[in-house]
Amino acid sequence: MTLAKPQMLLNLVLALSLTSSFAFAGDEIPATSECLARMQAGKYKGQCIDTSGKRAVKIIENRPEQMTINNFRKGGQFYKAVIPMQMVDSASYVIVDLNATPVNKWSIINISHTQLRFKMKPNAFIELYPINDTGGGPVLMEQDLFISMNYMAPKDVGYDPVKGFDEDLYASVLQIYSTADEIQTRFVKQKLNMYEIPLSINGTKAAQILRAAIKMSDRIQYSVPYDTWSSNCTTILFDIVDSGLELAKQKPYRFTPLMIRDTGLVPAFKQLAKRGVVDKETRVRLFNKEFGYDLLPSGSNPYFEPAIGKRLQDL
């Protein structure tokens, strides 16, 4: 067994000492027409959040059969989207292996990013319109989308998972965007592997989760802190699943020190099983394959690659 460096142990102790706050302290700093949102606490308090590529949803209309929202992203642009909720077909949990490009040399955490994917039924489409639509027809159609909780910060401030133990350093956004955008980013630009766990639920329940995500994004905007340990891409997604499926008695999913070598796959698979949204025959898929990409080089193949094709009981 290799002993961790003192700095690593300090980071772990710091993580355990932080509480799970879901709101910034102090008076809210207002946005302006030039700045959609500002940092509310910490080192960057008062600075403008860079919303050029990631934005929170704004609900225009919420009906049982249909939701209309602003800030659906496709091709790097933001649109008004009309989503036929009764035509949602399926949902899955997706893991991005980020270890091909380590973000911090001191990090002992096996870094991954997690998301929820939703697909529409065949011949059913999400209609996309210009944000300032004046009554014309849709300019684009979409059938496949991602929900993702991401860090937010001022322009050119990157995410550091070690510094991210400080709950006041980063803000967050729950964004909704085209799967095509994710493919372009992860496979073409970043050369990263992605893994998928299909949820064993029907379209009605998938739509309930999607509706819960949209409502949360609209409600929190950029006000929830993003941190490495307690309020991040994985924990918030499980909060959305619990809310959408009305699992009020389900204990919230949070990270523990035992998960530092796998923050996204096997522990999450177990939590999905506890919630009854996967079955005994559910297997991990290599998401790459669906879009014509083979397994790409990665620094964490010993942790994620062996899971391909495996059921939970095989891992």
Descriptive account of the structure:
The protein is α+β, with helices and mostly antiparallel strands and 315 residues long. It has one domain (11-314). Helices cover 22% and strands 23% of the residues. It is built from 7 helices and 11 strands. Helix 3 (203-220) crosses helix 4. The longest helix has 18 residues, at 203-220. The two termini are 22 Å apart.
Using the CA coordinates, give the radius of gyration. 19 Å
Compute the number of strand runs: 11
Major β-sheet annotation: 6 strands, antiparallel
Task: Please identify the structural class as seen in this structure.
Answer: alpha+beta
Termini Cα gap = 22 Å
Quaternary organisation: single chain
Whole-number count of domains: 1
Rough outline: globular
Helix content: 10-25%
Question: SSE order in H/E notation?
Answer: HEEEEEEEEEHEHHHEHH
